[in-house]
Specification:
- The complex is a heterodimer.
- By secondary structure, chain A is an alpha/beta fold.
- Helix content of chain A is about 65%, strand content about 10%.
- Chain A is built from 16 helices and five strands.
- In chain A, helix 3 links the parallel strand 1 and strand 2.
- In chain A, helix 11 packs parallel to helix 15.
- Chain A starts with a helix and ends in a 6-residue tail after the last helix.
- Chain B starts with a helix and ends with a helix.
- In chain B, strand 1, helix 3 and strand 2 form a beta-alpha-beta unit.
- Chain B is about 70% helix and about 5% strand.
- Chain B is α/β, with parallel strands linked by helices.
- The mean pLDDT of chain B is about 90.
- Classes of the chains: A alpha/beta, B alpha/beta.
Chain lengths: ~400, ~425
């Protein structure tokens, strides 16, 4: 039997297993479909709108009413009126509103008399996005109100209309968001969360697939099929999974960058390459885990703990620079980390291959990991000398 | 009569309790999950997010204006906590190259006419370019430059107003028409760790319990036992004592883990603990109870030991998002809003954030507690129904088995036919 014939027979066997036990396709195709639908539909607005902002208007003047109406009219905010501060504060603590804006009594009177009234606003920074957006929204409104009053004063002083703008706003900044010009929160998260879920699924399902052979003692049958050739046995299984996962991964990439039109500075082909490498490297990690611990249940528990932690350690939310020094090395253990680096180079900066080939090499280096444990896996498969479940 | 019923009830429940406890303690896999995930995960997460704040984001500056104002602004920006001026470049090309190589995470550009515009009392503009690979870079760049800009704007305005013939006091009044103070009482520095850790601590309890219980249910099923077998003497009644007896084991284990996660861990990492101890205990008791019934109801779907990981591991991050800790609950799409009501974590995490970190009291979080109670009742009923059905199935096992076998045979036959066809195709 040539090597290829052995692989074919393993692939045939694996296909039969898939048909017999739906868990493999449920755990891969159905899970990834759910995740893709979830992250794309949950965050589909990109930026949240109508964030609830509590206003306690103790002044009830035309100025304060105008302020509230303008705040309500912004896309970001939705004003909820309260009669007293304590009930508004209770709702702030209860997370029902993101912020409380307190307009003091005599607000209008003090503005007219130039007595500089104090406006206070309280933000609940525990609901990150809602809190920081409300903060930005209120701050803008305060500045606009203040600007409107100043313009009136300047007009009364007889300042030339052309000069007023320079007086109101002597310094201005224009902000360019490179890689995500609309500040689409959905694109930012989905871009990494969905591949992260792919990494998780690959590791779990492949560990399970290799581990059940041990658990049900079918590994000898597998080895018989390949003439006691562990390389062919594992390659056959992995080949089929690589096809499946690459197909899933590429579908996701195409959905992200072609169908959803998420910003991508570089070429799609480069992301497809990164995705393929992510599949290979994650598979290598799975084989390493089951090879080191050839007991299905322990390997799965370890795989689960490892891959859940990967979501944080990739550093796309809290950057790696902000992590404690001891953990930065740990982030290198995750293929997803390199996928993220390639995404930044390709998707955000459109850098040439020369700038990110290191990460490609790193992902390829993962592929050598299985060779460290195949011998051990072979003896486990052959002698079944480890606990069955 | 009544007394003897109660006695028997307690004796049965205790028997089931002991059996389940023995099972858990003898199961290495479940113990690994309980200990590693329950005890080490909270520590690990706290360690990852220990700093929580990104400081001194490296920035390149291109100062084509080269005037005293721009130089002063650059110095001030460098002095902020958010920004560090890592490179001063002579041209935009050089800065772009540094940006591209990721040596800096942003560029600040002062155009040549910046000083001139200031001198002519026009609006002087500068530009910032932020790397959006992490929103924290953008936030730092924006906040750092905005603080400096607001400070400068005020100084320049007062200067210009004086020029228009206002006295210093008048100018100050005109510039600062409305004074404001922004107060962020619960998370003063917008620290990433405070908001994230608050949300995931409770979730860890629910998820660990679910995976552990599913593993134990799956194992029993594999070994042809059932998690739900009723004492034979009861003739099919006594569902309640099975559910409560088994539940009590998990309840006890997870009250211990829960106290550790919600009280000890925050104290270990000097995390804000603004709530009262007893309020948190009330929440914890309720949450663990609801979680036990939740896990019992859902784990019935697990037929094999490992299935829970393969089919439900991906739900952990989904549940994190469904707590509404980042994307605000008010902006949830309708479907996902109702979907989030399936999980105790949705209410439990919010309640914990509000109680522990925002210092609320039970009265304020009453709506969340009410929702948890409703969930608890529903899941208790579901868990009972699951036990009842399981028993029903067990008693008629043979009939059902043969029916299932015939369906299975047919599926396998068809599958093999498909396999053969693929085989032939491959050979060709």
């Amino acid at each position: 039997m040539t090597f290829w014939q052995k692989i074919f027979s393993v692939v045939r066997r694996e296909l039969r297993i898939w048909v017999r036990r739906p868990i493999y396709l449920l755990g891969t195709v159905a899970v990834m479909a759910f995740c893709t639908i979830f992250y794309l539909s949950f965050l589909k607005d990109g930026v949240p709108s109508d964030v609830p902002i509590a206003v306690v208007d103790l002044d009830r003047s035309s100025t304060s009413r105008n302020f509230c109406q303008q705040l309500d009219a912004t896309q970001l905010g939705k004003v909820i009126y309260y009669d007293d501060f304590s009930s508004a504060r209770a709702d702030l603590q209860g997370g029902r509103v993101t912020s409380v804006c307190l307009i003091p009594e005599g607000f209008n009177r003090d503005i007219q008399a130039q007595r500089q009234p104090h406006l206070s606003f309280y933000i609940n920074g525990l609901y990150f996005l809602g809190g920081s957006l409300a903060w930005k929204d209120i701050l803008t409104m305060v500045n606009l109100t203040s600007g409107a009053v100043q313009r009136q004063v300047l007009r009364m002083k007889g300042v030339d209309e052309n000069e007023i703008m320079g007086l109101l706003r002597p310094v201005d900044v224009d902000v360019h968001q490179i890689g995500n010009p609309t500040m689409n929160y959905g694109a930012y998260l989905a871009n990494m969360m969905i591949p992260a879920m792919l990494q998780m699924v690959i590791i779990i399902v492949l560990i399970y697939s290799l581990g059940t052979e041990l658990k049900y003692g079918t590994s000898r049958h597998l080895l018989q099929l390949t003439g006691d050739d562990i390389y062919a046995a594992v390659s056959g299984k992995v080949a089929l999974y690589t096809l499946l996962f690459t197909a899933i991964g590429w579908t996701i990439e195409i959905i992200l960058y072609k169908w959803m039109d998420f910003p991508l500075a570089g070429r799609l082909g480069e992301m497809l390459l990164a995705c393929f490498l992510l599949v290979l490297a994650s598979e290598a990690v799975a084989i390493l885990i089951i090879g080191c611990v050839p007991v299905c249940r322990f390997a799965l528990s370890i795989g689960a703990l490892y891959s859940v932690l990967g979501l944080s350690l990739t550093g796309f939310t809290l950057p790696v620079e902000a992590m404690p020094l001891g953990l930065r090395g740990l982030t290198m253990m995750y293929p997803l980390r390199y996928y993220y680096q390639i995404y930044v180079h390709v998707g955000i900066f459109d850098n040439p291959f020369g700038d990110w080939y290191v990460y490609v090499l790193a992902m390829l280096a993962f592929c050598f990991l299985p060779f460290l444990v195949l011998k051990r896996l072979h003896s486990a498969y052959d002698k079944l000398d480890y606990a069955r479940n | 009569m009544r007394n003897s019923y109660l006695k028997r009830w307690l004796r049965d429940a205790l028997g089931i309790f002991n059996l389940e406890l023995k099972n858990i303690l003898n199961d290495g896999g479940v113990m690994i999950i309980f200990i590693a995930a329950g005890f080490f995960y909270p520590i690990l997460y706290n360690f990852v997010y220990k700093n929580g704040i990104l400081e001194d984001t490296p920035i390149a500056v291109v100062d084509n204006a080269d005037c005293s104002d721009s130089r002063r602004m650059i110095r001030e920006m460098d002095a902020t906590r958010e920004i560090e001026i890592a490179y001063e470049c002579v041209s935009m090309e050089e800065a772009k190259e540094l940006f591209r190589q990721r040596k800096v995470n942003g560029i600040i550009y002062f155009p040549a006419d910046f000083g001139e515009c200031l001198a002519y009392k026009q609006t002087a503009k500068f530009s910032i370019y932020a790397d959006m690979s992490s929103f924290l870079y953008y936030k730092n760049l924006l906040m750092g430059s905005n603080f400096v800009m607001l400070h400068e704007v005020n100084n320049i305005k007062i200067e210009r107003y004086s020029f228009e013939g206002l006295t210093d006091a008048q100018a100050d009044q005109a510039v600062n028409t409305v004074l404001y103070e922004d107060i962020n009482p619960y998370n003063r520095a917008f620290s990433y760790s405070i908001f994230l850790i608050s949300a995931i601590l409770m979730l860890i309890i629910q998820q660990v319990m679910f995976y552990g219980m599913s593993m134990s249910v799956g194992t029993m099923r594999e070994e042809n036992r059932s998690f739900a077998s009723l004492p034979d003497s009861l003739k099919g009644r006594g569902v309640g004592r099975v559910v409560l007896g088994r539940g009590a084991v998990y309840w006890l284990i997870f009250m211990i883990i829960g106290i550790y996660v919600t009280i000890v861990v925050p104290a270990m990492f000097h995390f804000p603990q603004r709530g009262s101890f007893w309020d948190i205990m009330v929440l914890l008791c309720l949450f663990v109870t609801v979680s036990v019934f939740f896990c019992m109801a859902w784990s019935t779907l697990v037929t094999r030991r490992e299935s829970a990981f393969i089919l439900f591991l991906f739900m952990s991050p989904v549940c994190v998002f469904l707590t509404g800790f980042s994307w605000p609950t008010s902006a949830f799409p309708v479907f996902w809003k109702y979907f989030s009501y399936l999980f105790p974590s949705t209410f439990g995490c919010q309640a914990f954030i509000n109680l522990n970190t925002a210092g609320a009291n039970l009265e304020i979080i009453a709506p969340l507690l009410r929702a948890l109670c409703i969930q608890g009742v529903i899941y208790f009923v579901l868990a009972c129904i699951a036990v009842y059905i399981e028993n029903f199935v067990l008693k008629r096992k043979d009939e059902i088995d043969s029916a299932i076998r015939s369906v299975e045979d047919r599926i396998i036959e068809r599958g093999e036919r498909i396999g053969d066809r693929i085989e032939k195709q491959l050979q060709r």
